């Protein structure tokens, strides 16, 4: 039983697709369990749930790497009716399946098991070290993580002139290398540092009143649901729940789950988090249904995924026109409690920029500095040019240089993120790549649809959503992320779009 509309009648291709679909369905079963773990599961469920997920992960790995799959891919590669037209859906699907298969099979099963075990131990020890505010407790685990990841990178290999970081980043951002990231990040850092200096010297910063007003959580929830459906998250094909760390997961384009969080004194955080996750959710709901769970119906990379979330959160959700539409709704939902907040207070309050220690609490401008610091450090660790023991000092030095702040301790410094303890490096830059892609995509959308932003003031979000759907969502994994950017915007990724946007908007708000 297949719901896919393959144009070929090649029986091997049909069998391969059924097999790949089943593997994808198994993976999505794991995603259901993980969603449940984050949103509904009672505390005592942790251990049995871990065992359930481990079985699924093992079975999925065995199935993905079986020689039967490799044989079917090879047979399709030799079939002119499949690969004859290299741009056909079938040919592109086979190219992506080949890449996935080769990548899964070049890692020995023993290393896969070792990685899973290390991740669980390292994460446990990281949490304890963070609680005790003591990096030295985590240091031996970080050393093990770096050793394992360097071994893993060796198994994958990397292009000539490249480095271990490149091999690992491929899982998150296909085609991305450390040298390319550096070439995009360096001009970003220079312009951003200049902008931050000017913002810090502003004599007319916006009021923070919006971020201090106390509003009941149940009213906040109704409010963000209103925003989510207005911008186009489809509740017939998705749910919004609450979790400590907001996230998005998809079981199918017809069943996409997002979460958000609420604090009585921070409605701004609930709005930003909800619009962010809606952006991820709208991407997943917008993927091709006829290719659901297959390469052409999958998100292309974490960076492009993040571009969709940041675009709705920032380019839309922190725009003046959005607040023209949202401000009266704020009054409808919260009544007298928001009487003192005029349009400039909410728009300004949503756009406050201030260097801080914690990445996940950072504003849309300084956030990128947090990412550059992590990228530089993990790159040096993997090259063998920085010892784990020297990470706290390297961290503090960069926070001083890039953000002008002193790191008081490890918990507020290099122990704040879970990523490295999950045996994951090469991931962090996808956040800033997402910011850069979002600004460049939004610029292209505005050129294609003059007056686009003015529509936000009257709640017209549909044209933008349709444009993103046609140009980005429906492409699935057809192009590499950097190529998709060129196809959609006509130019390679550049820091200029994000900086033009930030300088223009924040310059006006801060009176620079
Ligand atoms: Zn995100």
Notes on the protein architecture:
- With 512 residues, the chain is mainly alpha-helical.
- It has 2 domains: 11-136; 204-357 and 395-417 and 434-509, Neurolysin, domain 3 (Orthogonal Bundle), CATH 1.10.1370.30.
- It is built from 21 helices and 3 strands.
- The chain has helices at 11-39, 46-64, 67-77, 80-83, 89-105, 109-131, 135-156, 164-169, 178-200, 217-231, 267-286, 302-316, 320-334, 343-349, 367-383, 391-403, 429-448, 452-456, 462-471, 481-489, 496-509; strands spanning 238-242, 248-252, 255-260.
- The chain has a 3-stranded mixed beta sheet, sandwiched between helices.
- Helix 1 (11-39) packs antiparallel against helix 2 (46-64), helix 10 (217-231) runs parallel beside helix 11 (267-286) and helix 15 packs antiparallel against helix 16 (391-403).
- Zinc ion is lined by residues 276, 280, 306, 309.
- Zinc ion binds at residues 276, 280, 306, 309.
Helix amount, in percent?
55-70%
Broad shape:
globular
What name does the CATH topology of the largest domain carry? Neurolysin, domain 3
> What's the average pLDDT?
96
SS-based class: mainly alpha
The end-to-end span amounts to 61 Å
SSE topology:
Layout: H1 11-39, H2 46-64, H3 67-77, H4 80-83, H5 89-105, H6 109-131, H7 135-156, H8 164-169, H9 178-200, H10 217-231, E1 238-242, E2 248-252, E3 255-260, H11 267-286, H12 302-316, H13 320-334, H14 343-349, H15 367-383, H16 391-403, H17 429-448, H18 452-456, H19 462-471, H20 481-489, H21 496-509
Parallel strand pairs: 1-3
Antiparallel strand pairs: 2-3
Helix pairs in contact: 1-2, 1-3, 3-5, 6-7, 9-15, 9-21, 10-11, 10-13, 11-12, 12-17, 15-16, 15-17, 17-21
The protein binds zinc ion (ZN).
